[in-house]
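Researcher: Checking consistency across runs. Here is Delta-aminolevulinic acid dehydratase again:
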Amino acid sequence: MTVYGSFPGARPRRLRVNPAMRRMVAETRLHPADLILPAFVREGISEPVPIQAMPGVVQHTRDTLRKAAVEAREAGVAGIMLFGVPEDEKKDGLGTAGTDPDGILQVAIRDVKAEVGDELVIMSDLCLDEYTDHGHCGVLAEDGRVDNDATLERYAEMAQVQADAGVHVVGPSGMMDGQVGVVRDALDTIGKEDVSILAYTAKYSSAFYSPFREAVGSSLKGDRKTYQQDPANARESLRELALDLEEGADMVMVKPAGPYLDILAKVAESVDVPVAAYQISGEYAMVEAAAEKGWIDRDKAIAETLLGIKRAGASMILTYWATEVAQGLGAGR
Ligand code: PBG
């Protein structure tokens, strides 16, 4: 580096001098089409129910879900990921409501499809925890363990009813071994070869899911450590990734997002399929709570979290702020 007298030869600050310059040299930009809105729809309610631990997020009625889908589409959001919350008395050991063609998620898929057609990518959570009375993502063996292969049979059936309802993308999120292959096979068997699979490839056992458990009224006691990944591990994500791709995943996801940006970067570097990241309920709750206390600037913090996730390599981000952020981007903010 040339140094002239006592002046620094290089001044990176020159490219930071004003907003116009910073805007021009920015490497990462958020776009509404990067965003996917996760949304909850609850059976048997006539008014939306606020989720305490997620201020601003509700359990939708069928009607308000349709409105939320329209609002998301109008803001330019790419897609919506639907979660069904059945009536409590419909939960059972097998998660039967998850495979009922008239179960709440299937009904919601049809509603949203009727409302927005193909203008918004309609995705569905393919997992049993919303429907089981024990709250696990699978069915239990006699000794109480989550039975992998028996669960796969349930996922195959779920994939088919969700596809029949008109979903564009299914999101197997239960972390059972072989789930992507079984779901692909089940879809192809009924002629749904155009329904894609967004695989929850690297899904960690995280403390940040807690608000979601309220959102879906989960009765889980204990944890999911025998099927979700250990936060201490990075390499096994690459193994999960290889398996999911081999089994036919069209897109892969890392979840949670913020505490796992290293995993996201590794995954994004090593694949040629689209990579998603899920900014989960606890990540949302932390920012909202600190902002409510006046400890951080809410809008700036939200933008920074999303930019970080995109910079790390995600081309699609699931976030509960999707519509709001997309609206702001549309307004040039
Ligand atoms: C499984 C599922 C979960 C989330 C999305 N899909 C819960 C879990 O694995 O425990 C969490 C999303 C969030 O916390 O925002 N059905």
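Researcher: Does this match what you'd expect to see?
Model: One thing to look at in this run: Residues 125, 127, 129-130, 137, 173, 209, 212, 224, 280-281 surround PBG (CB under 6 Å).
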